[in-house]
Design a protein that fits this description.
mainly beta, single chain
Length: about 120
């Protein structure tokens, strides 16, 4: 998971409008009912079966909350080829016991992190 901030912001510390990380919103589309401001992009790479499990959602929500965001919406989903990876295991004496080469693709999700605008900003 990687957070890419958009530009520089005047606020030194952003605090989410949500009381806890559990309330952070992960949306399929941009919010329609309230005005918001985007602050960056969150890139999630999954080398497994491509599904985003509950564990990842919790991790994403905690990351967004720590950065003062109110949520994110999905901007892009795709498959990216990953160069072959070689895994090697060995014994404590230094002998190789098994070796495997895995060529895979990674599923990449790109989300846009946002904060709702304050009433006086709207």
């Amino acid at each position: 998971m990687e957070f890419i901030q958009e530009g520089t912001h005047k606020e030194t510390v952003l605090v989410s409008h949500k009381p806890g990380w559990e309330q952070i919103e992960i949306l399929k589309h941009p919010p329609k009912r309230r005005n918001y401001k985007t602050y960056g992009r969150l890139i999630v790479r999954n080398f497994g079966d491509g599904r985003i499990e509950k564990f990842y959602y919790e991790k994403i929500k905690k990351e967004l909350f720590d950065r003062g965001m109110d949520g994110m919406y999905l901007a892009n989903v795709g498959i990216v080829p990953v160069p072959p990876t070689i895994f090697q295991t060995g014994t404590s004496e230094g002998y190789t016991t098994s070796m495997a080469e895995i060529a895979k693709d990674a599923k990449v999700l790109e989300g846009v992190a946002f904060r709702y605008r304050e009433k006086e900003e709207e």
